From TrEMBL, chain A:
Gene3D superfamilies reported for this sequence: MetI-like
Name of the protein: Multiple sugar transport system permease protein
Key words, A-Z: Cell membrane, Membrane, Sugar transport, Transmembrane, Transmembrane helix, Transport
SUPFAM superfamilies noted in UniProt: MetI-like (SSF161098)
Membrane topology: Multi-pass membrane protein
ABC transmembrane type-1 domain boundaries: 67-263
Any Pfam family the entry gives: BPD_transp_1
Family to which this protein belongs: Belongs to the binding-protein-dependent transport system permease family.
Subcellular location, record wording: Cell membrane
Transmembrane spans: 7-27, 71-92, 104-125, 137-159, 194-216, 236-261
InterPro entries associated with the record: ABC_transporter_permease, MetI-like, MetI-like_sf
UniProtKB/TrEMBL annotation, chain B:
Lineage: Bacteria, Bacillati, Actinomycetota, Actinomycetes, Pseudonocardiales
Topology within the bilayer: Multi-pass membrane protein
PANTHER family reported for this sequence: ABC TRANSPORTER PERMEASE PROTEIN MG189-RELATED, ABC TRANSPORTER PERMEASE PROTEIN MG189-RELATED-RELATED
Protein name per Swiss-Prot or TrEMBL: Multiple sugar transport system permease protein
One Pfam family from the record: BPD_transp_1
ABC transmembrane type-1 domain boundaries: 64-252
Length: 271, 267
């Protein structure tokens, strides 16, 4: 093979991925920053708007409320999914028979769509009116989110539990360590990386909650479930304020980055 | 012994909570018209009428066809494009390789809502709104697929590649006759994930297609509501939307479970 042809071959093999990522991942990242400082309209009229869109966000009570709603949702969703996933992972690890069957049953919600979950649970919640009460709508949505999503976290934690040497656990049991002591002092410490991963990934997911809101509440009642991601969609597609929607999207990105960095710090500081 | 029994009972209860809503969905979908539905009464007889009825409406058929196209085309295109790139990332040296790989991976840290508006503006400028091009092509940029395949190809033994070289095989022959066949297990796993991601995808089909010519099942389902349909009809639509995923999962769950750490919680 000639040396001259080698770089060309590499380029050809990379070309589809380069074009796809260039046009639909990297260009939109730059475009988001660009759009957020313009008053772009679908017809194609563009004028530089400076920090106008950001100022409009800061002055928008609904936007500020959406930040608080998103935080509240995350504060309910993340601990709940961690507890459910950890509980089911421990049960699945210790069950003496039918593990494959139980695992399949527990994972079923994870492989279906959020839209489907939303449709079923909207109907299930209907008699109790949980989605019509501003004080219960976020917990109700979080329950559906956890029901749909815990299977993934459970698998990650299950893989972590498998790393605890079985003979050590057996030895501790013989020495009279209780179930709680074995969990607290043997399983939990070796699960730390897996728990960290689950918390970060699920927090990022919680900040982007959209499908469930769209299907189940439309942001209501009285904007009690109007989250940041839903606000981005509303600005862009209901009010057609594209620059403002792009700016709100960037705020979401900044928050996600900030939260993951903070969580990393927190985990590194408490070994 | 007693603790084992309690453990099994507890796990059975939790499992029932996980699959119970699906069971309710299916039973209600099979409940005959004009008869009381759960939780008021267990149906006296079961019928496929609602499911057949939903499947024979023009719009639902179109959504189903579009979802099949969206998922199937995406699976093939993602596997091909990602495996080509993964091969050179894993087996070639070229300037900027690591920087490029890291920048592909960094896109995983970007929430989709952050690039939603510019993406849709690009689609409009290309004239791709409510077309298969607009629906499918932007979703083919899949960093997880490139990463997973690169790890796998890197771990293949060098001897395989040396032997192919000695036989005079060029890069295309190596890719097509060596890399792809050896990657079959990981490609199969990836195919399942890409299928599920696209079948269940919502926000992108919503903003590109809505309920237009290229609308998909998830978007269609989200527009149906109990006001216009009977509950059995609504649950029939939900059943048709969800059943393919549950079946694919049941058939291929071993593959999914073994690679889940790589792929993230889905979109």
């Amino acid at each position: 093979m000639s040396r001259l042809r080698e770089p060309l071959t590499v380029l050809v093999f990379l070309l589809p991925v380069l074009v796809l990522f260039g046009a639909f991942r990297f260009l939109p990242m730059l475009g988001a920053a660009g759009l957020s400082v313009t008053d772009y309209q679908p017809g194609g009229d563009v004028e530089f708007a400076g920090a106008e869109n950001y100022a409009s966000l800061v002055g928008d009570d609904h936007f500020l409320a959406s930040l608080r709603t998103t935080l509240t949702y995350a504060a309910i969703y993340v601990p709940l999914i961690l507890v459910v996933a950890l509980g089911t992972a421990l049960l699945l690890h210790s069950v003496p028979w039918g593990r494959g069957f139980f695992r399949a049953a527990l994972l079923a919600p994870y492989v279906t769509s959020l839209v489907l979950s939303g449709v079923i649970w909207k109907w299930l919640f209907e008699p109790a009116g949980l989605l019509r009460d501003p004080s219960t709508v976020l917990p109700a949505l979080a329950v559906v989110g956890v029901w749909k999503g815990f299977g993934y976290a459970m698998l990650v934690l299950l893989a972590g539990i498998r790393n605890v040497p079985a003979d050590c656990l057996e030895a501790a049991k013989v020495d009279g360590a209780s179930v709680w002591q074995r969990f607290r002092h043997m399983i939990l410490p070796s699960l730390r990386p897996a728990i960290f991963f689950v918390v970060v990934v699920e927090t990022i997911g919680a900040f982007q909650v959209f499908d469930l809101i769209y299907v189940m509440t439309g942001g209501g009642p009285v904007r009690a479930s109007y989250t940041l991601a839903y606000a981005v969609y509303q600005y862009g597609f209901t009010y057609v304020e594209i620059g403002k929607a792009a700016a709100a999207g960037l705020v979401l990105w900044a928050i996600v980055l900030l939260v993951s960095l903070t969580q990393r710090r927190a985990f590194e500081r408490n070994p | 012994m007693r603790s084992r029994v309690w453990l099994t009972i507890l796990l059975s209860v939790v499992s029932l909570l996980a699959i119970g809503p699906f069971a309710l969905m299916v039973v209600i979908a099979l409940t005959p018209r004009y008869s009381p539905v759960l939780p008021h009464a267990w149906p006296a007889s079961l019928t496929l009428d609602n499911i057949v009825g939903v499947l024979s409406t023009e719009s639902f058929l179109r959504w189903t066809g579009n979802t099949v196209i969206y998922s199937a085309v995406s699976v093939v295109a993602v596997l091909l494009s990602a495996s080509m790139a993964a091969y050179v990332f894993a087996r070639k040296r070229f300037p900027g390789r690591d920087v490029l790989l890291w920048s592909l991976l960094s896109t995983l840290m970007v929430p989709f809502h952050a690039v939603l508006m510019p993406s849709i503006v690009i689609i409009q400028l290309l004239g791709w709104a409510d077309t298969y091009w607009g629906l499918i092509i932007p979703t083919l940029a899949n960093a997880q697929a490139v990463l997973l395949l690169r790890q796998f190809i890197r771990a293949l033994p060098d001897e395989v590649f040396d032997a192919a070289r000695i036989d005079g095989a060029g890069d295309w022959r190596v890719y097509w006759n060596v890399v792809l066949p050896l990657c079959r297990p990981v490609l199969a796993t990836l195919a399942v994930f890409v299928f599920l991601w696209h079948w269940n995808d919502f926000l992108w089909p919503l903003v590109v297609s809505g309920t237009g010519d290229t609308g998909t099942l998830t978007v269609g389902l989200s527009t149906l509501d109990a006001g216009h349909l009977t509950i059995p009809e609504l649950m029939s639509a939900a059943t048709v939307t969800g059943l393919p995923c549950l079946l694919v999962f049941l058939l291929l769950q071993r593959r999914l479970v073994s690679t889940v750490g790589f792929t993230g919680p889905g979109r």
